[in-house]
Amino acid sequence: xxxxLEPTLPAPPSTTGVLGWLKRNLFSNATNSIATLIxxxxxxxxxxxxxQWTFIDxxxxxxxxxxxxxxxxxxxxxxxxxxxxxxxxxxxxxxxxINTTFLIFAVAIVWLVVDKTPYKGYVSVFVLFIxxxxxxxxxxxxxxxxxxxxxxxxxxxxxxxxxxxxxxVAAMPFGILLALGRRSNMPIVKSFSVIxxxxxxxxxxxTVLFMASVMxxxxxxxxxxxxxxxxxxxxxxxxxxxxxxEVIRGGLQAIPKGQYEAADALGLGYWKSMSLIILPQALxxxxxxxxxxxxxxxxxxxxxxxxxxxDILAIVQAANSDSAWxxxxxxxxxxxxxxxxVFCFGMSRYSQNLEKRLQxxxxxx
Amino acid sequence: MSTLDRSNQKNSATQPSSGRFWNDPxxxxxxxxxxxxxxxxxxxxxxxxxxLSNLEQRGITTGFAFLDVEAGFGILQSLIPYTETxxxxxxxxxxxxxxxxxxxxxxxxxxxxxxxxxxxxxSKNWLIAKICTVYIEIFxxxxxxxxxxxxxxxxxxxxxxxxxxxxxxxxxINVRGIYMPEPIGTDGFNYVWIxxxxxxxxxxxxxxxxxxxxxxxxxxxxxxxxGLGLIIGLPFVVFLIMGMPLxxxxxxxxxxxxxxxxxxxxxxxxxxxxxxxxxxxFIAEIVRGGILSVxxxxxxxxxxxxxxxARTLRFIILPQALxxxxxxLTSQYLNLTKNSSLATAIGxxxxxxxxxGTTLNQTGQAxxxxxxxxxxxxxxxxxxxxxxxxxxxxxxxxxx
Lengths: 365, 400
Prior knowledge:
Chain A is mostly helical. Chain A contains 15 helices and no strands. In chain A, helix 7 runs antiparallel to helix 13, helix 13 (270-300) packs antiparallel against helix 15 (329-358) and helix 14 (312-320) runs antiparallel to helix 15 (329-358).
């Protein structure tokens, strides 16, 4: 005798499809339903006008406030000054130099970030050692027939990027030395590193920038004068190398002891075992941490406006008080916020992605 | 653990040094360290020398004597009596107190908002979880300074003038700030304060007693309600007995501005809002991470024991999550305090703005002023790390 199973019943309609999803996620019980309705009401009443202001009732182009007639956002304020917001007071015939500099950088970074591109080693050497020289001559000029553009003309987003990139790249070697010093057994080296790191991590960046702009000129003989941008950079690098050191120390601690012992057993000296065995492994682990530090630094570069450099926030802030365009500060701030957000959010997504990929194994949550 | 040192132990144990001193790691370490000390000494000597000669050329005398000189400038907001005739030393104190004020306000508000957002992001309600996620991702990716500017210049500076103030629950909101009625205690109000502190002490004693009794007998005691009764009820009863010794001073429009009552200046308001909103996004992530770090087995064990939801939260999740949450939370508090120095960009009179700003510019005593300012922040961060170490050693998992 043969028994046939009854065909299984389909799931009740209230648990599948859109309805099921709504019931599970928005209206699972009375409290939840009330919360959903209240929040939904506020969202609709707030988002509607916000979208209308931003997109529907907005004016995008024009060369005076008179162009803004629709009553919503006046993006003409941004588009009219876009060049200034991007390049600062750089002479407009020379914009191509900034564009080339960042184009090369972008290509190199994409090359390094994307999987399975060949010659990664050569590209990193290029970025770390050759590119800074090219970038200096392109941006500053003074050689190869390029006219000199003084740093006080630099500004806008390009200055923000210059500060952040130089800050992080130059802080790297100091950070490595400090991290190694902090893990060293030589008491003087160790205490020097600890004091250095804790000192810079304990004070706010503003006081560092103040110090760099007020005290640095006092520290050197009177004949030497520092450029304002250079002073800010020195402050940022001193500050950032302490944070870098902590990230690198974290990476060093994650390397199993066996690796150190194996390097010893091979008879490698300190610097050889560090540069051939430990650091290459540790650096891979540190990339997410370095990206996070970079995000923090990128946001912090906006502080240079306090010592009178014109990064993107400072230049928009200055444009806000232009008497021909009064009353559009909201648009200005939203634009800067959007620029920063795109960069920071993109980078944080990348670092999260990387963390997931590097985590090969045990913690499957 | 340095390889240098380990090979060094090996060397000195197995073979005596081979005569060439640079092959002996012990001596090499000594050499490097002497080199470092000499290098640092030369560096600092060079700097100090230059500084002294530069200062001499500019005619600035070093030393802290300037702290007793009359300051001669006004400060927007001061928690202690301050006039222009007070000394520069007093401006340091005023700035310090203003920093403490905005930091404490920010810490309290950011903690509440952060906990709500962090728990909200784990909510089963899709809408709540998504809103919390969007909030966190937006506000932690926008520079704090920009947020301060937005609140100050785009929101608070566009409020109406005092004559057209917005009236809200007895307060007046205008471009000069928020003017609120101020409760002023008259004779006998001190007893209410005494009752309040007595209530706190009594609650603490009660909690100790209740915990001990629960450990011994397993009987529960409603400490929360009893404690609330002691801390709020006791002062209130005293307040009634003393015949309600409290007057409320209403702000009133006189001439071009309001007089009387409490005022929250827009600079403080903008800084507080921005610090709270920015830091809350980070705190939310810390809270979420802490809650997620409690293994699911703990929840299952709790329900196997038959603990109700509220008690699971109080006795199982919170104690384990807090162990993970508190250390990064403390460093967020420290960050918030350091970030409050951005006040100088909108002119809120905090330590950096008043002391490292105006006082420095007026006196030219860059070295001393920056040194004192840095010392304040360094002290704070050292105190924080001492607290964190203490907390970690107390709360660290005691394994079998």
